[in-house]
Design a protein that fits this description.
By secondary structure, the chain is of the alpha+beta class. The protein contains 11 helices and 6 strands. A hairpin with a 4-residue loop joins strand 1 and strand 2. The longest helix has 22 residues. Helix 3 packs parallel to helix 4, helix 3 packs parallel to helix 9 and helix 6 crosses helix 7. The chain has one domain: Nucleotidyltransferase, domain 5. Helices cover about 40% and strands about 10% of the residues. A 4-stranded mixed beta sheet has the order 3-2-1-4.
Length: about 290
């Protein structure tokens, strides 16, 4: 039997096609109705949240938000931690709803409280529904992809998730009382409380390591007690203006535009006559040099 190689992105360990097929399958009686996905991807230096639908020719991105946009809202440091992922999810949700004209109808949780929240249907227009797509990320309790989910849900998107709160920090299982969810603990993470605890611990026990690990916080004058107020201001700023910065977008598009001329210009291939003349000129130059020395 002939060996059947796996698909390229499966060989590269970039796509889980079993999970992707489950997210893309649509009922036949819905015809060509798009099935939207809330895609979360987290790298070492950035967080990306997208609202994506699939077509035969490929995926179509309807809205995107990056952690690299957060400095515009007042958050300059810690752009990949739990609290920052929440902010990016909130930004993507508010941006998508504003694009659809649903931002006034579905406001979500205006002041974060950590409680379970799922958007309920309005009488006039249905909420915008999308399914969480985490890629190859491990979906353990308290994972950062769930921070983006929490931000999107609080922002007004309808992203189905279980009511038990098993995804978020604060979920625990007691042998006597069974599973329980502590919303205050989740709010603690949303407001960067875990970062505050670590900063205070290092500052007290290892000052040198504190100065090294949190040098950017120190340069910005951010102290452990300032984090909660900082994140609340960022949430308010995102809700006030979730639009993408058009100047930054234009600069990024011009940078990667195919019409832009590269400063690295390759040499044109020489014709046969030019190559023959080049060799002949080198031979004549060598002969003249030899004649001059004689």
């Amino acid at each position: 039997m002939r060996y059947q190689p796996k698909m390229r992105r499966r060989r590269e360990c970039k796509t889980d096609y079993q999970a992707r097929s489950c997210l893309l399958k649509q009922d036949k009686d819905k015809y060509n109705t798009p099935k939207y996905r809330f895609v979360v991807r987290i790298s070492n230096k950035n967080v990306t949240c997208q609202v994506v639908s699939s077509k035969i020719i490929g995926d179509e991105v309807h809205c995107v938000a990056y952690a690299s946009e957060l400095p515009r809202y007042g958050l300059d440091v810690g752009l990949t931690n739990w609290a920052a992922c929440y902010c990016v999810g909130l930004l993507c949700a508010r941006r998508m709803l504003k694009k659809l004209g649903l931002d006034e109808t579905y406001k979500g949780v205006e002041v974060a409280d950590g409680e379970f929240f799922e958007t309920e249907e309005d009488e006039e227009r249905s909420p915008f529904k999308c399914l969480l797509d985490v890629g190859l990320k491990r979906t353990t309790t308290g994972a950062t992809v769930y921070a983006a989910l929490k931000g999107a849900a609080d922002g007004g998107l309808y992203v189905p998730h279980r009511e038990s709160g098993k995804q978020f920090p604060g979920y625990s299982v007691d042998n006597d009382n069974g599973p329980k969810y502590n919303a205050a603990r989740c709010l603690h993470y949303i407001m960067g409380g875990h970062v505050k605890e670590y900063m205070e611990k290092l500052e007290e026990e290892k000052p040198d390591e504190y100065n090294s690990r949190f040098s950017r916080y120190i340069a910005k004058g951010i102290k452990p007690d300032d984090l909660e107020d900082l994140y609340r201001k960022v949430h308010a700023a995102i809700r006030a203006n979730p639009d993408m910065d058009t100047t930054a977008r234009a600069a990024r598009e011009s940078k990667y535009s195919k019409a832009s001329v590269s400063k690295y210009v390759g040499q044109r291939k020489k014709t046969r006559a030019e190559r023959r003349d080049h060799v002949l000129n080198k031979i004549l130059a060598i002969r003249r040099k030899a004649a001059a020395q004689a």
